[in-house]
Amino acid sequence: MPNQSHIPHQANVSGVNSSVQEDKQSHIKTTPIVLTIAGSDSGGGAGIQADIKAISATGSYACSVITAITAQNTQGVSAIFPIPLEHVEHQLDAVFTDLNIVAVKVGMLADSSIIRVVANKIRQYQPAFLVVDPVMVATSGDLLLEHSAISTLKDELIPLADLITPNLPEAAALTGYPVPQSQEQMEDMIDDLRDLGARAVLLKGGHLEQDENSNDLFISDQGFSLISAKRYPTKNTHGTGCTLSSAIASYLAQGNTLLNAAKLGKHYISQAIAHADELDIGHGHGPVHHFFSGHSNVR
């Protein structure tokens, strides 16, 4: 009899341990992993560094493929070293063949060749979500991409995207419109932005500094929605575009819809801007505060 009572007890413990192990394995398999493909910012405010901070702060695991190394701080960029194409390919193969990457965020790509490399690898590995931040216009208004590279971006990469996140100068470069000076002029671009071929577009209105709120348009085949947040007066906005697109990719990897991920990302970047002046970084345009909250997942 003692043996009979003992055996079921052992079986029960074994079952519990098995269940715990299965739960652990399930958790491991569903860890939201986000890949950022972008350049390095040695000042830490934008690029790969901002992406990793935003992905981590919003509750996902970040991995990276570096396309260029910049000598950069809060006052500007003094040098850029492009990573050889072959090594960019090696990085992409390394992460895709080992990690369960759910979402990919693409930032600045320097020329047509690297755009094609990235587009080909996206087609090869087919991650569930692709967010493209079409970085092509400097704050000064200067084009960062040659026109041929913009064409390659439109032909090769944007049609693969679930979401693109252009600011107003970038949207103008993509569509041929003048840079919008009002929300009405933003709305004039909707059809042309849809025609680029991405599943959805988040047209960012942050450049309309005369507006009380920062208003973005979320554009899809179903129509468009206004996503609005309070505008905070600060010069410390370096890396806002990188941060927003990375946060959206993070929320997509966690199972949110495109629209909800955009809303969550907008809330996150707004709070990161609101708390930016709590940091004292550099002598120019400082970064936003990626870790304004002690919580790992900002909802």
Automatic annotation (TrEMBL):
<dbReference type="GO" id="GO:0009229">
    <property type="term" value="P:thiamine diphosphate biosynthetic process"/>
</dbReference>
<dbReference type="GO" id="GO:0009228">
    <property type="term" value="P:thiamine biosynthetic process"/>
</dbReference>
<dbReference type="GO" id="GO:0008972">
    <property type="term" value="F:phosphomethylpyrimidine kinase activity"/>
</dbReference>
<keyword id="KW-0808">Transferase</keyword>
<dbReference type="InterPro" id="IPR013749">
    <property type="entry name" value="PM/HMP-P_kinase-1"/>
</dbReference>
<dbReference type="InterPro" id="IPR029056">
    <property type="entry name" value="Ribokinase-like"/>
</dbReference>
<feature type="compositionally biased region" description="Polar residues">
    <location>
        <begin position="1"/>
        <end position="20"/>
    </location>
</feature>
<dbReference type="GO" id="GO:0005524">
    <property type="term" value="F:ATP binding"/>
</dbReference>
<dbReference type="Pfam" id="PF08543">
    <property type="entry name" value="Phos_pyr_kin"/>
</dbReference>
<keyword id="KW-0067">ATP-binding</keyword>
<protein>
    <recommendedName>
        <fullName>hydroxymethylpyrimidine kinase</fullName>
        <ecNumber>2.7.1.49</ecNumber>
    </recommendedName>
</protein>
<keyword id="KW-0418">Kinase</keyword>
<keyword id="KW-0547">Nucleotide-binding</keyword>
<feature type="domain" description="Pyridoxamine kinase/Phosphomethylpyrimidine kinase">
    <location>
        <begin position="41"/>
        <end position="289"/>
    </location>
</feature>
<comment type="pathway">
    <text>Cofactor biosynthesis; thiamine diphosphate biosynthesis.</text>
</comment>
<dbReference type="GO" id="GO:0008902">
    <property type="term" value="F:hydroxymethylpyrimidine kinase activity"/>
</dbReference>
<dbReference type="InterPro" id="IPR004399">
    <property type="entry name" value="HMP/HMP-P_kinase_dom"/>
</dbReference>
<dbReference type="GO" id="GO:0005829">
    <property type="term" value="C:cytosol"/>
</dbReference>
<feature type="region of interest" description="Disordered">
    <location>
        <begin position="1"/>
        <end position="22"/>
    </location>
</feature>
